[in-house]
């Protein structure tokens, strides 16, 4: 067990989603001094259910976090409801309002944000019948008439994938230029193309009814999918010098270590493809590796103290 100063945490985890909480869970069970700081704005808050998580399939995201917070608190992890303003080298985690936490290591688990196209109705229906992930929601809307909005470079591939869940899929290019090759792929998958710019999503009685084009034609649809632009919530890393990849996401090894020793990143902040179950697994891997890195530091410190005692050993 670490015997570091009482005012210094072994690890401060920033972000209390599945990745952050599972990191804290492993470390709490390892008897480390840990704090989880969370601002209370999870990415999946609009979703009613969380799918594809073994033993938690169908559970609400909010319920998962409630259970997770109770579990980590049971191992002595401090849960702090606050916004983090900055992480200073050293490491000092500065909270909004003036308080600061010292840490030996910092885990950033702040997720990402979905930037949606500025089409009327998209933001209002997000997470309801305007969806993104087929693995998260496709089964629940299977066999319904789908629409796929062409507002992202990956939109055609998105439509080709979604064909697995419905025989009735319409692709709306909107302002996107489709190549001849993509048109052939869509035709081969029996996906129709509705040419023209999308005006808005048609909603009646609080249900999606279709997609209206600028010409006034309405294409009836019961579920519409969109591929959002995913932007990591990683501003806290900007002043620390962490390497990033071509997509702008922080680079980590298999355990969540960044290029800056002592700074870790897990979940969607580093991996846009991570589902909740994946993020939790990444947190588990990070917690395991973190404890061993902390142990190596503890052993080195203890050896130094043993070899160079402050007072002569009494024989």
UniProtKB/TrEMBL annotation:
* InterPro entries in UniProt: FAD/NAD-bd_sf (IPR036188), FAD/NAD-binding_dom (IPR023753), Ferredoxin-NADP_redctase_2 (IPR050097)
GO MF annotation list? thioredoxin-disulfide reductase (NADPH) activity
Catalytic activity as recorded in UniProt = [thioredoxin]-dithiol + NADP(+) = [thioredoxin]-disulfide + NADPH + H(+)
Which key words tag this protein in UniProt?
Flavoprotein, Oxidoreductase
Location of the FAD/NAD(P)-binding domain:
9-283
Q: Which domain of life is it from?
A: Bacteria
Protein name stated in the entry: NAD(P)/FAD-dependent oxidoreductase
Tell me the organism: Streptomyces thioluteus
């Amino acid at each position: 067990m670490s015997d570091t100063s009482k005012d210094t945490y072994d690890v401060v985890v920033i972000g209390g989603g599945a990745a952050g909480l599972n990191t804290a869970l492993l470390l709490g069970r390892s008897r480390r001094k840990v704090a989880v700081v969370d601002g209370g704005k999870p990415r999946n808050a609009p979703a009613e259910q969380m799918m594809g998580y073994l033993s938690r399939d169908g559970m609400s995201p909010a319920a998962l976090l409630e259970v997770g917070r109770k579990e980590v608190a049971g191992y002595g992890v401090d849960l702090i409801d606050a916004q983090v303003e900055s992480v200073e080298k050293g490491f000092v985690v500065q909270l909004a309002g003036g308080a600061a936490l010292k840490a030996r290591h910092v885990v950033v688990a702040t997720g990402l944000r979905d930037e949606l196209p500025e089409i009327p109705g998209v933001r209002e229906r997000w997470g309801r019948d305007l969806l993104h992930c087929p693995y998260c929601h496709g089964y629940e809307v299977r066999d319904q008439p789908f629409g796929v909005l062409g507002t992202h470079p990956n939109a055609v591939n998105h439509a080709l994938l979604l064909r697995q869940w419905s025989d009735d899929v319409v692709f709306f290019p909107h302002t996107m230029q489709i190549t001849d090759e993509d048109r052939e792929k869509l035709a081969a998958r029996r996906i129709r193309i509705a040419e023209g710019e999308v005006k808005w999503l048609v909603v009646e009685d609080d249900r999606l009814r279709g997609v209206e084009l600028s010409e006034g034609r309405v294409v009836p649809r019961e579920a519409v999918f969109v591929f959002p632009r995913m932007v990591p919530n990683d501003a806290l890393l900007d002043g620390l010098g962490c390497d990033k990849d071509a997509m702008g996401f922080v680079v980590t090894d298999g355990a969540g270590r960044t290029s800056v020793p002592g700074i870790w990143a897990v979940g969607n902040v580093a991996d846009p493809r991570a589902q909740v179950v994946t993020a939790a697994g990444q947190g588990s891997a990070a917690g395991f590796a973190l404890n061993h890195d902390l142990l190596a530091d503890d052993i080195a410190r203890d050896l130094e103290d043993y070899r160079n005692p402050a007072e002569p050993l009494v024989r």
